[in-house]
Specification:
mainly alpha; globular; transmembrane helix; transmembrane; membrane
Amino acid sequence: MTEEKPKHQEEDEQEEFGELLKYTGAGFAGGLITGAALDHFGFHQSALGQWLVRTLSGEGESLFEGIYALRQRVRGSFGSMAEAYGWGKFSGMLLPWIIDWGSRMAGIDVYGVEGFYIPFFYALSDQLGANIAGVIFLRRKAGAWGRALHEYVGHPVMLASAAIVLVVPIGLLTARLVGFSPTTQISTAVETIAANLCWLPPLVGWLMRKQDGSV
């Protein structure tokens, strides 16, 4: 009987991570469609347009995941890693807006090499929030920071999220150094989508639970 409960929880979490994966595609599609529409009407370098395109491409799934987490809370579901992950991503949405508009006000060339970090924050500030929320969740679950950190290191989803946060900035900087510049809304969407590997941690979680279920 003690083994059935963890299995039931793992099946629920597999479904949750699978549902979170669907939100990423919706965000990507929204960013590309919006970018194409803005370019069509001549708003190639509109600051407001870039904000919207990057928000949809880099944070669109966070909106859906925040709604999902809220729905889980309203339904009275027990806390899970997927729910904590969703809340963390939703809470990290404001940071890139502040960084983007602050950089523009400071006179930074958002199209040049010096502005490489802006799409990073749009794409992955939610991952920072997800990592923090995940650690807090594990701390509550384990009851001590030592055990929580041990579980963190052994949790493939959280490790994938941490790896993305470290690797993506290097890729963005390299692209800008070799000459890429988001001078159209479509290129803005493509850059943000390429940096937005937020689908990888939920995919790892989904595959992990699916593999466990097939054993």
